[in-house]
Every structure is written in C-alpha cells, then in structure tokens.
Give the backbone structure.
Amino acid sequence: MPTTEPPRRDTLAGYLLLAPSLVGVGGFLLLPVVAVLGISLARWDLVSPARWTGLDNYRAILTDPAFGRSLAVTAGFVLLVLPLQTALGLLVALLLDRRLPGSTWFRAILVLPWISAPLALGVVWRWLLDPADGAVDQLLGHRIEWLTSPVLALPAVAAVTVWTNVGYVALFFLAGLAGVPPQYSEAARIDGAGPWQGFRRVTLPLLRPTTFFVLVTGVISSFQVFDTVYAMTRGGPAGRTEVVAYAIYREAFVDYRMGRAAAMSVVLFLLLTAVTIAQRSYFRGRTTYEVG
Amino acid sequence: MRRAVFTYLALGVAAVLILAPYLMSVQTSLKTPGQFAQRPPLAPPRPPTGANYAELLVGGHSLIPPLVITVQVVLVVVIGQLTSSVLAAYAFARLDFPGRDAIFRVYLATLMVPAVAVLVPRFVLLGAAGLADTFWGIVLPSMFGSPYAIFLLRQFFRALPRELLDAARLDGAGHLRVLRHVVLPLSRPILATLLIITVVTHWNDFLWPLVVTSGVRWQVLTVAVAALQSQYNGDWTLVMAATTLATLPLLVLFVIFQKHLVRSITVTGMR
C-alpha cells in the first residue's frame, strides 16, 4: 500500500522544479519591491549618479498638490467605475441568467471589449468623443468637448472603462447565480416575497462571495488604470485625469525623476494594501451563507 | 411574455452599445481622409477603400514588424510562464521538502504587489543588466511563471487522485515522467484556461513594453498603435485601421474558442 510508506523527502527535486519560478518571483517581484524602497530614498535622473536624500521624496510628493490631486483623481475614478460596473454587471447577469434562446450570443458580444487591448479601445473612443470628427457628438447633434473639459474628462474615461468591464463583471455574477439553488428563490416566492424582495433577501446575500471578488479585483485594477488614460487624455486637461499610475509613468519616464516615481509607487502599494485589507475585513464581518 | 420582451430589449440595447464602437471604427477605416473630412463621421464610406489597410500592411507604416514581435513575445511568455508555473505547482502540490510551505506563502504574498508599483524598479534592474530596449527586456519579467497561475495549478494538482501518481512513482517513473505522462494529460482544462488568459493578457499588454522599449525596433502592436495615433493625430481613418488590425487577431480567436474563453475568465478571474 503506497499510503503506508514513510513520506519521502524530495529536497533536491523540489528546489530544481521551483528554480525557474524562484527566478521570476525573486528577481521580478521581491527584488523590485526592495529596490523600489531603495530608489525612493534617492534623487536620481538615470544619467547622473543617484544621491541619497532620505525621506525627502516622500516629503516632496506628500506636500505636492499635483500628487494630492492625482490621488483624488484616482479615488474619483474608482468611485465612478466601481459602483457602476458592479451594478450594471449584476443587471446584465440577471438578464442573461433568464437563459432565453440566444443568451450565449449576447454573452459573447458583451465580453468582446475585455479581449480587446484597452489601449486600442481608448484610441477608438478618443475618436468617437472627438468634438469635430467624432461620432458621439454627431449623434447628439451637439458639440461637447468631452476630453478637454475639466469636468467631463474624468467621467468620460470612467465611462469607457465601465463600458469595457461590464461584460467581464457580468460573467462572474453569472457564475455566482449558477450556484444559487433555484429552491431558495422558489421558497421565498411561496412565502409571498415579490421579485425585488426575493432578490434582495435571497439572491443578493447568496452572491456575497462573488460580489466580494468582483469588488476586490475591481478596486485593484481600477486603482492601476493606465492604458485608457494614456490613449484618451494623457492625463489632461491640466491633470484632471492624471491617475496615480499615469503620474508614476510621467515622473519616471517623461521627467526622469526616478526617486519621486518610486516614492509614489510605495504610496500606491500601501494604499492598495490598506484598501484590500479593509474590504476583506468588511466582508468577513458579515454573515456568509453556505451554498450547496 | 412581457418579461421576455423586456429582457431581449435590454440585452439588445447593451449589445448595440458594445458593438457600435467596433463597427464605427471599421467603417471609418474604410474611408479615404478626403471622404472622412467632407462627410459626417457616421456617413458610410462611398466607395469603401482599402488604402489605409494597404498602408499598414505593405506601405510606409507597416504594422507587420510589430505584429511579428508581438507574436514572438506572446509565444515566449506563454511557453515560459506555463512551463515554470507547472513545475513549481507540481513541487508545491506533490513533493515534500523543507521550506516548501514558507516559500508558497511568500508566493501568495506577492499577489498583493500591484504591477504599477514595480514598474520603476523593474525598469531600473533590467536597465542595469543592459536589457532596456531589447526583446528579452520585454519578456523576462513574465516568462518565469506567475504566482497566480502557480496557485491555481497547485489547487488543481492537489485534487488529482493520489493513488494514480503514487502508482506511477512506484513503477519507477521520475517526477518529470509522472508530470508529463500522468499529471499534464489530466490537467488539460486548467492548462487551456491559463493558456487563453496568458495570450489575451500579453497580446494586449501596453505599459511595460512602452516603458522598456524606446525605438521602433522592438515596438509591439499596442505601442505601435499608440505611436501612430500621436504621430497622425487627426488622421482618424489610418488610426482606425490600425486599431482594427491590432484587435482583429484576438477577436478571431475569440469567435473560435468562445465557449472556452468565457469559462476561462470565470475560472481564473485574471486580468
């Protein structure tokens, strides 16, 4: 009987098999995390030698109104994108879950933007929203400066992001809905609950794990949005769409201030970690229902 | 009945909203700049022209070199990442060696590292190694396995019937043989899933190639499209042909593998 054999130790084999991924995780994730901390403590333009400046970069970015603005822009972006894409994704999933003939076609169409490069989609929308040559303003019969207006630019970029993500989010809710046993909503209906009540009291609580997943991944990706901003506005007008990822890119690869860019990266890292932990404890604190 | 009508109506509106930008960009790509300037943006091309596509395929702004580089990048990353991840996941799931669980916890912890936060140090480290603006500079960070793929594969490998693997081991098969002849054939679904997700992610990747390459020599498709757009700002017919060409290959793949891809997304939740 194989199970009664004493456990073999496979130290050499184990480490040989791990070797490639140790290079990957060590060299391209752990080492960069250490390096970003080091770089953030120096003043460096990639050309002249780096100069140790302690916490100066942190002091500089935290008192720089531009960085404060880019944090606010990012927060605004996340707050626009997250509720909209989650609610619309759920709505679309509920519609698809009725499984009418042809549903799979709709599902396929709705996922299309997810497999297209965000950069390419951003370029397409930049044209669509162009006030002189674009299709949107022609349809509206009204000239609106979507991407150069300080008020409309961020909502426009957020709307395009929502447009891209809705089908993708809907897929997760669809998978979650497939795990909701029909007897549950049946029972609610027999007890006299209307469709809305049944949804609120039965379906939604059962979807909690899915909702958690969709929100966590949504926060992480929208916090890091870059391609869409690069394609549509390059952070403009006057920084109104300069999200943190774009600010880091500009500091490092346009202005060559590596130290400041590194300090911003560390702040982004800490913020995202804090948000993820907060979300986790929020969802853990609420009842989850075992399904199945 | 009314419910069905409402459902179709709502889904129809959503489908139109999703498809319209694609159709409008294709329509614009079939116009000459003259037609585009003289008639409203929504007017159909009359007559349709293939001049923009000819320019991007055989003309002065050929997207063929970026296409070739993108294909190479995706191939190297996919092969490297899947191989490294499979090996690591097998070790974590099936072998017993000191430090295994501690290392696995470190791998899991790296899932918390946002890609944007390691952009600067990765560039600095690869630059110091003389790999900025090279092919290897583009692929190295992602070709040695991804913690998330390792995590998913490990879960899958652990669920495989233990007796099967032990029997093969008792017959004298080494780990690599067991992996190749027993584990991998049983793991086709998860491997196909990871394959699809990795192809989509790296075909569409933009920020890293943008940062690590500087000239036209190693431009991938997304970077080439962005460069074309800033160079020909306003020449939307050419730019729309470029975005169409850049998104088309994956759309074709999607139509072929639709069912599988939809399932893959929900299995991994990866972006």
In short: Chain B touches chain A through 101 residues (CB under 8 Å). Chain B has a mean pLDDT of 91. The domain at 64-268 of chain B is CATH 1.10.3720.10 (MetI-like fold). DSSP finds 15 helices and no strands in chain B.
